[in-house]
Write a structure and sequence with these properties.
- This protein is an alpha/beta fold and 337 residues long.
- It folds into 2 domains: 82 residues, Arc Repressor Mutant, subunit A; 171 residues, Vaccinia Virus protein VP39 (Rossmann fold, 3-Layer(aba) Sandwich).
- It is 47% helix and 16% strand.
- The chain contains 18 helices and 12 strands.
- It has a 7-stranded mixed beta sheet, sandwiched between helices. It has a 3-stranded antiparallel beta sheet with strand order 1-3-2. A two-stranded parallel sheet has the order 9-10.
- Strand 7, helix 15 and strand 8 form a beta-alpha-beta unit.
- The longest helix is centred in the middle third of the chain and has 17 residues.
Length: 337
């Protein structure tokens, strides 16, 4: 038996779910917001959140061991850089990601992961009799809202940062496919005042996008179109964008909508794909953990660069550049073959 690995290292892994719960609870109680002006005692925090002080102390003490909050003196806690991600007014807040991760529905689905491994059937189907998490969220308003807010946080930290470094200077129009309420296309347009945009998503989704784009001040430069990407894609774009979409779909589905994009875009057009890309080694990479999500929640998966290339080639595209493969999400640039 190796001697350089301690049992404590194993304990940290097997009990990691306890940290997720503690982090989500701190997020729901808005502890980080209460500490914005300085350290407070557990008794003050408990009174402000109508919580049981001894239990709250044990939660915060636990989180301080992983760098979330700092016990500056006995029973008094302050913010840390990690804890700032839990602040509501932080433009890069991941507060709702922590909350959605402890939602009962997700906890129950991941609790049935063993079923998926034994049968190949998504755990969400055995638990809730739906094919994927989108079908569940469509029927459950509050979890859907929390999930959407968590996706906003991820987009601010990942997709938007990747796209800020991309050169749009020679581009006239960007088409954001399955762009949701418009957070990403609005960020692109704000960063590139010369651009025109088109947001494409399901009709019921783009209804909310119209209001969001107006609030962001880019509605006059962004057309909104409702439709189904498996049937057709709007033409007229110089660049087509799919951000964090492919992770949710199987290979055959991806080939179908990529072929529709290929048909819609001009010969000299480009397709940008943002998705996690799994490196082929034994080192830690967030994508390898994230892959368990689509495995349990539907029929998608996280792919290696070689797997992406095979799908792109089958759809009539060639991968010409990949940016930031070391980060949780990568930006891939494609051209038509």
């Amino acid at each position: 038996m190796t001697t350089d690995i301690r049992p404590d290292d194993f304990f940290k892994l097997t009990c990691a779910s306890w940290i997720s719960q503690a982090l989500g609870i701190a997020a729901k109680l808005s502890i980080a917001d209460l500490l914005a002006e300085g350290a407070k005692s557990v008794e003050e925090l408990a009174q402000a959140t109508e919580s049981h002080a001894p239990s709250l102390y044990r939660i915060l003490r636990c989180l301080s061991t992983v760098g979330v909050f700092h016990e500056v003196e006995p029973r008094h806690f302050a913010l840390t850089p990690l804890a700032e991600y839990l602040q509501s007014d932080n433009p890069y807040s991941l507060k709702y990601l922590a909350i959605t991760n402890i939602d009962e529905w997700r906890w129950r689905v991941f609790g049935d992961m063993y079923h998926t491994v034994k049968t190949g059937e998504p755990a969400i189907k055995s638990v809730y009799s739906v094919n994927n998490y989108w079908q569940y969220l469509e029927k459950n308003t509050e979890p859907n809202l929390i999930f959407s807010q968590s996706m906003f946080g991820i987009a601010q930290n990942c997709q938007i940062q990747l796209l800020k470094s991309y050169d749009f200077s020679k581009v006239g129009k960007v088409v954001d496919i399955a762009g949701g309420q418009g957070l990403i296309i609005s960020a692109i347009l704000k960063h590139n005042p010369h651009l025109q945009g088109l947001l494409f998503d399901m009709p019921e989704t783009v209804f909310d996008a119209v209001k969001f784009l107006k609030a962001e001040g880019v509605d006059e430069r962004c057309e909104v179109v409702g439709g189904d990407m498996f049937k057709s894609i709007p033409s007229g774009g110089d660049i087509y964008l799919m951000s964090y979409i492919m992770i949710d779909w199987d290979d055959d589905s991806i080939v179908k909508f990529l072929e529709n994009i290929n048909y819609a875009m001009p010969k000299n057009g480009k397709l940008l794909v943002i998705d996690p890309v799994i490196p082929v080694d034994n080192q830690y990479h967030w994508s390898k953990w994230e892959d368990l999500y689509p495995m349990c929640m539907g029929h998608g998966l996280v792919r290696t660069q070689a797997e992406f290339k095979a799908i792109f080639r089958k759809s009539g595209f060639e991968l010409v550049n990949i940016f930031s493969p070391e980060k949780p999400l990568s930006l891939m640039e494609l051209v038509r073959v």
